[in-house]
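Justification of resources, computational component.

The compute hours requested in this renewal are based largely on the per-chain cost of generating structure records like the one below. Each record pairs the submitted sequence with a full structure-token output. That output is archived, and it is also reused by downstream analysis tasks.
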Amino acid sequence: MAASAGLKALSFTDHMDKGAAVHGVNLASRYPVEFFTGVEISTSLQQKEYHLLCYGFDPDSTVLDEFLSYHCSRIWEHADKFLDHFQAMGFDVTKDDISGWGKSVPTGVTFLDAIKKRNSNDPRLHAYLKGEKAHSPYLNFYKDFSLTDFGSIITSVLPSLTQSIHALKGSGVLILAHPGDIDRDLLKVLKQDGLDGIEVYSSHHEQKTTRHLKSLAADLDLFASAGSDFHGERIKPDIPFGYIPGQPDERLMQVLRRRRDS
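The structure output for this chain reads:
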């Protein structure tokens, strides 16, 4: 897909799972596309969810393996909290419904698929299954519910952003994904903690936000990266494959090449 779309470089950045990135390394030599390892870490700071990208890691990194294993296990140890929340809302959902969720992090896909098994006629799900939000049901469901008390449950079990930066510093190039209207002072502190850059160009950002982030990156001497946040037509049908509204810093690409080729 990347070769057909004319992309020059590609990275798979699954949430809390490096399996696809390792698979991509093994496939990369067959295609005229530069491939870089990547993973997206779900974190929290001040009761808000943030996503931290780690690019250019060693596929055999035990540091990253141990980090992901520990935090994914901790998240799933608290699965009862998610169930309790939806049961308290009156949804019929049990442990059996989440048995196939996997070992990464629960998402809008896992939540909605579990709940709709026996609640598809619940009027609260109508917008996602048949109504105005059905064009992208999983993303909309997650966004809507993450803004309620449910959001505090999610952030309470995620690793902290600052601790994640400290733990993974040196293991890869650390980029804050789609940071939106993040505060400059916070970015300055995160850079001091070890953050290498921010995702300036993202399908999440409007042009005004992109200009603001580009200015912040230059002001704080942070790498400016680019990502489509493509999740496939089933999850995010509004985001086409290969859509990137800008180009990453060339110096970022040079650092990633050095890491990959060393």
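The longest strand covers residues 38-45. DSSP finds twelve helices and seven strands in the chain.
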